[in-house]
């Protein structure tokens, strides 16, 4: 048996391809299925099953398309009841893959009500568990994505589900879908894979016997929920069309919302007024999907020769298929600017008596480290609630986060609103605190 892992860093997720004796099982595939099917074809694998652990909240699925293209059996939790043909997975009702390969569904509600993990047996012996958003490495899938009213009930179910999985043989390999960097984890998962035995020793949630205490731990400090999440469940319930083409036309004039994905130092020197400045990175799609209104046409701004296929792919993974094209030359229209400064320059500006500082980190990050006198507004709230009234347009606004990523996005927004932003790049609030001690 071999297990291939396909990491999607910007979403903090993993897709898996299990291979045994020429037969394959694909687990929780994202929409860009080419990378999974190519890997199977290269190894001459007959894809037997495509498994979904739950109706995903963080991306649109490629499971239906993968099954259709390969003839594999599409399997979803029985309680998911999606609006397309599939095999329902019932608790402990084995699926025979042939050649000694068996897939055993294990109902593990908590992350979602229908959530199902899959235990793989080879010749009757359990070897691998695909736990989706249930038992994670040193953590568990968060139970509050379907709203606060259901969160505690789902947290109690998650307590039972984790104990159900912890009773499996200690040597069983653990392959969760959600991992480090995912907003679907409750407490910040660490490593990507593990074993049941390791989790019994190292996972702090498995040491909590009382369901209410467990729920308290899971719900104590919830992370924000990205705005695009609310669209993922319905899309995965109704079915997702194939990936759009990743090549888009070159435009001379932008249409709709404009997203500038050039490096931040290029953006700072000149952007189209009112455009979104979201530098291309692993999380480009997540931030774009979170900050832009859903369903509107999008024009990308890129440098000459800059590759944009990855940007289109990241957006398609969360169901954003409205990219109209790319503009590569803004000419004299690039009139919106902001400043980028390093840590030393930022601290010098902070020490000025007229300094005003905006911290755009998450609330949980504020609790860990705070700069005195900071105006605090989490980056997405800046876009939905507007610029805090405490900030003065007539004075520079110093902006920081943890690394410079979110600060640059916020600076572009502030510039479009008529402010004079100065963003800390290459460092964050914790670094500034160390400097001013």
Automatic annotation (TrEMBL):
<dbReference type="InterPro" id="IPR044528">
    <property type="entry name" value="POD-like_MBL-fold"/>
</dbReference>
<feature type="domain" description="Rhodanese">
    <location>
        <begin position="351"/>
        <end position="437"/>
    </location>
</feature>
<dbReference type="InterPro" id="IPR001763">
    <property type="entry name" value="Rhodanese-like_dom"/>
</dbReference>
<dbReference type="Pfam" id="PF00581">
    <property type="entry name" value="Rhodanese"/>
</dbReference>
<dbReference type="InterPro" id="IPR001279">
    <property type="entry name" value="Metallo-B-lactamas"/>
</dbReference>
<protein>
    <submittedName>
        <fullName>MBL fold metallo-hydrolase</fullName>
    </submittedName>
</protein>
<dbReference type="Pfam" id="PF00753">
    <property type="entry name" value="Lactamase_B"/>
</dbReference>
<dbReference type="InterPro" id="IPR036866">
    <property type="entry name" value="RibonucZ/Hydroxyglut_hydro"/>
</dbReference>
<dbReference type="InterPro" id="IPR036873">
    <property type="entry name" value="Rhodanese-like_dom_sf"/>
</dbReference>
<keyword id="KW-0479">Metal-binding</keyword>
<dbReference type="InterPro" id="IPR051682">
    <property type="entry name" value="Mito_Persulfide_Diox"/>
</dbReference>
């Amino acid at each position: 048996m071999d297990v291939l892992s396909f990491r999607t860093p910007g979403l903090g997720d993993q897709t898996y391809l299990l291979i045994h004796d020429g037969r394959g099982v694909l687990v929780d595939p994202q929409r860009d299925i080419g990378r999974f099917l190519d890997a199977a074809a290269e190894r001459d694998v007959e894809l037997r099953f495509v498994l979904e652990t739950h109706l995903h909240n963080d991306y649109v699925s490629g499971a239906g398309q993968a099954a259709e293209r390969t003839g594999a059996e599409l399997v979803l939790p029985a309680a998911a009841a999606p609006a397309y043909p599939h095999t329902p997975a019932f608790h402990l009702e084995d699926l025979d893959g042939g050649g000694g390969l068996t897939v055993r569904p294990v109902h593990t509600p908590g992350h979602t009500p229908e959530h199902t993990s899959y235990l793989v047996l080879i010749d009757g012996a359990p070897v691998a568990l695909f736990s989706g958003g249930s038992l994670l490495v040193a953590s568990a899938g968060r139970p509050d994505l379907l709203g606060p009213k259901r969160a505690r009930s789902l947290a109690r179910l998650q307590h039972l589900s984790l104990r159900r999985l912890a009773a499996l043989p200690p040597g069983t390999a653990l392959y969760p879908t959600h991992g480090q960097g995912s907003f679907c984890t409750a407490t910040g998962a660490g490593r990507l894979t593990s074993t049941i035995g390791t989790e019994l020793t190292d996972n702090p949630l498995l040491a909590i016997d009382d369901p209410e205490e467990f729920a308290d731990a899971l719900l104590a400090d919830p992370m924000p929920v990205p705005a695009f999440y609310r669209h993922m469940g319905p899309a995965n319930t109704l079915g997702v069309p194939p990936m759009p083409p990743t090549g888009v036309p070159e435009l001379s004039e932008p249409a709709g919302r404009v997203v500038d994905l050039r490096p931040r130092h290029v953006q700072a020197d000149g952007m189209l007024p009112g455009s979104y400045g979201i530098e291309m990175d692993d999380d480009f799609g997540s931030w774009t999907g979170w900050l832009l209104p859903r369903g509107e046409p999008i024009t990308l701004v890129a440098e000459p020769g800059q590759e944009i296929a990855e940007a289109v792919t990241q957006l398609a993974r969360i169901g954003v298929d409205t990219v109209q094209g790319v503009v590569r030359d803004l000419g004299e229209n690039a009139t919106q600017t902001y400043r980028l400064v390093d840590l030393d320059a930022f601290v010098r500006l902070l020490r000025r008596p007229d300094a005003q500082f905006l911290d755009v980190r998450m609330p949980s990050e504020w609790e860990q480290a705070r700069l005195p006198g900071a105006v605090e507004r989490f980056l997405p709230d800046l876009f939905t609630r507007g610029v805090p009234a405490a900030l003065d347009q007539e004075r520079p606004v110093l902006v920081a986060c943890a690394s410079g990523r979110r600060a640059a996005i916020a600076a572009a927004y502030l510039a479009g609103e008529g402010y004079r932003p100065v963003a800390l790049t290459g460092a964050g609030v914790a670094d500034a605190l160390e400097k001013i001690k």
